[in-house]
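Example record

One chain of 374 residues, shown exactly as stored in the release files.
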Amino acid sequence: MIIGIPSEVEPDEYRIAITPEGAKDLVSAGHNVVIEKGAGLGSRLPDETYAGLGVEIVDTVEEMFDRAELIVKVKDPSPKEVSLLKPEQTLFSFLHLAPQPELTHKLMETGATCIAYETVMLEDGRLPLLAPMSEIAGRIAAQVGAYFLEKMTGGRGILLGGVPGVPPARVVVIGAGIVGTNAAKIAAGMLANVTVLDRNLDHLRALQSFISGRLTTVMSTGLAIEEYVSDADLVICSVLIPGARAPKLISEDLVRRMKPQSVLVDVSIDQGGTSETSRMTTHSEPTYVEHDVIHYCVGNIPGAVPITSTYALTNATLPYILEIANQGVQGAASRDKALGRGINVMEGKITNRAVADSVNLPYYPLSSIVPYDF
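Predicted structure tokens for this chain:
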């Protein structure tokens, strides 16, 4: 199979979808890998490194798309990339379609098979391709929250961990999944006063058993969110419903009642955001102020550390890329139900219920398109 890797074109996105080591494994398995010129430079991976491993470097994205059967990306495709997709091709990438009905429609019109990293799901509900980026995003969320609490960046002028005789910052994490757990670990490690809210008692129990001391776990209710958010110095939103839009748990009125110059980091922004006041930002312009609250809503947080992120992502995606390349997308999906759950669009139809519901379009079970039992 011919596997194409384009340069990422989203603002401030420096990751590449495959490392040289991953590309070598694909070539060794008998596949052809075609990479757009310069795609790895943001992760300090020059073309020469790939070329020395048998990868072909092409000058333009048009040539790469024209030749590839499987296109592997990091972020959701740009309008130009969508226009280059053909029905016989497979796109494997983060898609985050729930808050993007226009992109969903455009991908359906291509006829291509579109597999979203974030909805590849194991039987136990784990998301193996989203997990490494969630770990990174959670850790960065605590770091940037601490930074933007500093006076020079417009914050309250509070040190996250305090000092003897001066209390630490109050950090509230909404959601105890992978993002929230990692955010809580870093914030607690910086000696902040951390409260984590979630509806899943098992998640809260696991987190509390791992981190002792400056960590409180609270069952998430509307009243609890209002109480803890209004008193927080830093709020980190990390709620995820796989494939669906993030629920709006923080109202605009609640943001108005937050402390002046407090910080809200909405990691859920790529699924629409958890706060009513959240809107997408970039690493170049990461924050804005609304109701005297600093909002950090960068949609590609792991892109800030592209070397770490590129390797972490490839570690997770490579086995699935090899499955698709070796068996074809239908064969791979029939043998691996987790991969089948990752298919969002096929033959112009939406095959993920959460996505279909979010964009108000009909849902078609994958089994109605592919003659396998999913």
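Notes: Residues 306-335 form the longest helix (30 residues).
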